[in-house]
Amino acid sequence: MKNDPVVAIVGATGAVGAEFIATMDRRGFRVGRLKALASARSAGKTISFRGQTIVVEELTERSFAGVDIALFSAGGGIARQFAPAAVRAGAVVIDNSSAFRMDPDVPLMIPEINARRIREHKGIIANPNCSAITALVPLWPIHRFNRIKRVILSTYQAASGAGAAAMQELLESTRACLDGQPFQPTVFPHSCAFNLFSHNTAIDPATGYNDEETKVMRETRKIFEDERIAVGVTCVRVPVLRAHSEAITFECERPISEDEVRGILSAAPGVKIVDDRVRNYFPMPVDASGQDDVLVGRIRGDLSDASGHSISMFAAADQLLKGAALNAIQIAELLPQRVMAMD
Ligand SMILES: NC(=O)c1ccc[n+]([C@@H]2O[C@H](COP(=O)([O-])OP(=O)(O)OC[C@H]3O[C@@H](n4cnc5c(N)ncnc54)[C@H](OP(=O)(O)O)[C@@H]3O)[C@@H](O)[C@H]2O)c1
């Protein structure tokens, strides 16, 4: 319709870009016109959206004239370089990179947790790290019921978290391995096939934590608005194509039972409990792939904490959806409400 927003996707040819398009379509997100932007390499390629063929254009500072909402998924450098131009042109930017997440002027939003922050944006809204989203969607309603003092989580992160080329590399390295052929990885530092390795982001030599782990720790404190919450993270890349999994243990201020946690999570938005001890059926990336909820299971009292304050659980979520495109579209869906609220 005439008044529907003009939407630009920066990184339209990427793994997240493809999910932006599919998610807008699936959720009936109103789009007046769609602009698909990517690097010069992709200019002239086409993508389809609601029966229309959209020609991909090279991203430039002039790309944003007339754009209302700019969905960025092209990395931190591109976001830092082009998001200000989009804002100057009058667009609201929702960025998937880490470029602006810790900027105090930029809301870092998971709609199930802090939708009210939409009112505070000054043109840029940040989508949190995908591993942070997977943990925080289920932890938030527990934190509200009985404050979480400490979280320890370990991730099992899919190749697609590093983009379309990384998914391809997992497939090709697996094929080479099965064929007994040598394989030289170019996206990851190590071969993915039948292997796992510490997350491929840079390690801080002073702390021993890599960037991914540091992001989860810092972003948790910002999103929960709780500087005291202690978070320890170990991030690992596993040979899974899509959807991240996480083993999570948390300690609350007061004693908490697994039944209380199950009750809270059964009513929590964005969470689906998959916790079948009889069948030994728990969250798996194959089940999480392509669907919106964070799957949570293996909910059990942490036997290493005799005080009864701690619970362990296991989660899996499609990091291309709730960890990226879906969360961003959910944020975009809040934008008209902001306009109405300010009228
Ligand atoms: N993958 C995930 O699960 C995930 C989750 C959360 C957040 N994110 C974030 O989302 C962003 C994109 O991730 P992705 O997985 O979609 O990566 P990807 O599959 O590698 O796609 C990258 C996209 O960025 C575009 N791009 C690269 N250089 C560009 C340039 N100079 N100018 C314009 N566009 C350029 C690429 O266009 P060409 O095709 O033309 O190269 C492509 O469309 C990253 O910031 C990532 O950290 C990803």
Mean pLDDT: 96
What share of the residues does DSSP label as strand, in percent?
15-25%
Strand order, largest beta sheet: 10-11-9-12-15-14-13
Work out the number of β strands: 15
Helix content: 25-40%
For the termini, the CA-CA separation is 22 Å
The rough form would be described as globular
Structure description:
By secondary structure, the chain is of the alpha/beta class. It is built from 9 helices and 15 strands. The protein has helices at residues 15-26, 76-88, 111-114, 130-145, 164-178, 211-224, 258-266, 285-288, 321-342, and strands at 6-10, 33-38, 46-49, 52-55, 57-58, 69-72, 92-95, 124-126, 148-157, 197-198, 230-237, 244-252, 271-273, 294-301, 310-317. The strands form 3 sheets. Strands 10-11-9-12-15-14-13 form a 7-stranded mixed β-sheet. The protein has a 6-stranded parallel β-sheet with strand order 5-2-1-6-7-8, with helices on both faces. Helix 1 (15-26) packs across helix 9. The two termini are 22 Å apart. The model is unreliable at 337-343 (pLDDT under 50). Bound molecules: NADP nicotinamide-adenine-dinucleotide phosphate (NAP). Residues 11-17, 38-39, 41-42, 59, 73-75, 78, 96-97, 130, 160-161, 163-165, 319-320, 323-324 line the site of NADP nicotinamide-adenine-dinucleotide phosphate.
Short description:
By secondary structure, this protein is an alpha/beta fold. The chain has helices at 15-26, 76-88, 111-114, 130-145, 164-178, 211-224, 258-266, 285-288, 321-342; strands spanning 6-10, 33-38, 46-49, 52-55, 57-58, 69-72, 92-95, 124-126, 148-157, 197-198, 230-237, 244-252, 271-273, 294-301, 310-317. The site of NADP nicotinamide-adenine-dinucleotide phosphate has 28 residues, from helix 1, helix 5 and helix 9.
